[in-house]
């Protein structure tokens, strides 16, 4: 039976420092995050400590699922000048590759993931406000939730799915690839032009996704060069004998809630089908890398893709096939390990979106990012009678992703809401209750001055003695509200907490 799923995202945001010569994106990102953290420490602004850093001791990004690591690989070098912090809602907020990045806490279902993903956006908005209040007059930091700079560089929005270690990796490659190639028809954020090497920008007036231009391999370990559709990083952040984590780098950063919800919700269901060996090999794509770009450039979603068995099928028809098999799976096995009760809502939106893409894609305005963005751009182009390759359209593309509420084109047109705003506000300050993120966040809230560092699967406490004490959290399902709320409330000191945790069961 499929494992109960845990979901998470890691979003790198684009950043511009306006009003300075030779802006430094690393410095700008550090300033942005520090401004937010410092504000949290002001009286009346919250209980969290801004200086609880990330513990890199368990980081092994070069370990490959295929059973090897690159020769000479070492743990990542710690750059002490870069911000790397833990928040009371269980998130990680840090500078990575010259971008501000926020990783959501571990979530049990797609609805929760959507909530904390949106909370991440709100944290970035608050960070901008705090930073710009502190900057000299004439300077401004602007953050964008997008995936490319228009100059050949891409930054990612990664997804993470907990899987059983018993699931053969070859089966994941075999079946997940088709989903990742074709789900672009509803997960794509939309893009004006092309950044694919050897292709002129004007050759592609508009495409579905920002990321397709940057993928070169079907399977591989890299995340910044020679990007693969299936990433092989074997870093479960949990008991490695029991779990694996599928690190997905092929998705866009979405602003439309429906797009984000479907991105993680459909993928979670497909993972359940893979774990229970519910899929056959009839819809495997012959050349996934070229198909990824082809689908992205196919606004109609109807162009034929060559399958390994010699037949052809469109991205839309392949998604319908996955939808129907998912429906059959849920009818047979239930939804417990396929996203929980929210899987019903996933299936409803999935069916609605595929139906509209067949006949009335404009009905998806405000539900899918690429449809919404294209409508805005087409309306502007027609209204001002400008050519498809005009650079003004590329500027509109970027402005769609602007996180400043008063400047964002996305914010101005509006979108369908799944998670109420008040729940998002609560998620900014509170961790999910169903995973170990609850323990991490509540410990940080109650004893910020006693926590030295933390990461996904441990917290290191200062106890007043010569020895630091590490509490491991290798099971992501333990440390939930149910497991530890009473414990945390009843412990006055970290010493008492450690003693209680160390007691035999």
Give an overview in words.
This protein has 505 residues and is an alpha+beta fold. Helices cover 38% and strands 14% of the residues. The strands form five sheets. Strands 4-5-6-1-8-11 form a six-stranded antiparallel β-sheet. A four-stranded mixed β-sheet has the order 3-14-15-16, with helices on one face. It is globular, with a radius of gyration of 22 Å. Residues 43-50 and 73-78 have low confidence and may be disordered.
Give short descriptive properties of this protein.
single chain, 505 residues, alpha+beta, six-stranded antiparallel beta sheet, four-stranded mixed beta sheet, 15 helices, 16 strands, 38% helix
Helix content: 25-40%
Morphology call:
globular
Low-confidence stretches: 43-50, 73-78
Distance between the termini: 27 Å
Give the percentage of residues in beta strands: 5-15%
Q: Any idea what the radius of gyration is? A: 22 Å
- As laid out across the biggest beta sheet, the strand order is 4-5-6-1-8-11
Outline of the structure:
The chain has 505 residues and is of the alpha+beta class.
Topology:
Elements: E1 7-12, E2 14-18, H1 25-40, E3 53-54, E4 84-86, E5 92-96, E6 99-103, H2 110-134, E7 140-144, E8 157-164, H3 169-182, H4 184-187, E9 215-220, E10 227-231, E11 243-248, H5 257-275, H6 288-296, E12 305-306, E13 312-313, H7 315-333, H8 342-359, H9 369-384, H10 391-400, H11 409-413, H12 421-429, H13 437-446, E14 451-455, E15 458-461, E16 469-472, H14 481-490, H15 494-502
Parallel strand pairs: 3-14, 9-10
Antiparallel strand pairs: 1-6, 1-8, 2-7, 4-5, 5-6, 8-11, 12-13, 14-15, 15-16
Helix pairs in contact: 1-2, 2-5, 2-12, 3-5, 3-6, 3-7, 5-7, 5-8, 7-8, 9-10, 13-14
